[in-house]
Design a protein that fits this description.
three-stranded antiparallel β-sheet; seven-stranded mixed β-sheet; Nucleoside Triphosphate Pyrophosphohydrolase; alpha+beta
Length: 188
């Protein structure tokens, strides 16, 4: 951590009160009243999320992706395998679980590439992006409400999907460009 815990950033917003608005299966919403650096108050709408994992998995030089319908966007999306963390679950365990559940492949080894916030202006969700190119056949275990198909695509296909908007979520776009860097330089 770059700042000491006792030191507050000069733009720090102290929480005065917090009001729960919604508690769902995956997210919760709260409205906080905060004291701004200039002494004024403001409200902040905050989405709480348990965090998630995603996996850039290469099989014989192709990236494993899943296609599924995303209701908030009202369209099908091509994405890398991903899913939310269960309570108390370590991200690396969740990454290996989600990879096998959605693609039917197990990672023999897996490496964390980056952990990043998805929408820090209103949500606390952190996604942990992992990489593997050491896969073994496993079994697909989709959740009861999960409908998707899996395929392996080339880097050129992935870049075309980004241009066409078939891939437009941040985690998958990041994975595609990380893969491109890896293919050009041999490292991330």
């Amino acid at each position: 951590m770059s700042e000491k815990m006792s030191e507050k950033h000069r733009f720090y917003e102290e929480t005065i009160s917090s009001k729960p608005i919604f508690e769902g299966r995956i997210i919760s919403l709260q409205v906080d009243t905060v004291k701004l650096p200039n002494g004024e108050t403001a409200t902040r709408e905050i989405v709480r999320h348990p965090g998630a994992v995603a996996v850039l998995a290469l099989l014989d030089g192709k990236m494993l992706v899943v296609e599924q319908f995303r209701k908030p966007l009202e369209k099908a999306q091509v994405e890398i395998p991903a899913g939310k963390l269960d309570a108390g679950e370590e991200p690396i365990v969740a990454a290996m679980r989600e990879l096998e559940e959605e693609t039917g492949y197990k990672a023999k080894s897996i490496v964390l590439l980056q952990s990043f916030s998805t929408s820090p202006g209103f949500a606390d969700e952190i996604i942990h992006l992992y990489f593997t190119d050491e896969l073994a056949k496993g079994e697909v275990h989709l959740d009861e409400e999960e409908f998707l198909s899996c395929e392996a695509i080339t880097l050129d296909q992935a870049l075309a999907y980004v241009r066409e908007g078939r891939i437009c979520d941040a985690k998958t776009v990041m994975a595609v460009y990380a893969w491109r860097l890896y293919s050009l330089t041999g490292s991330f």
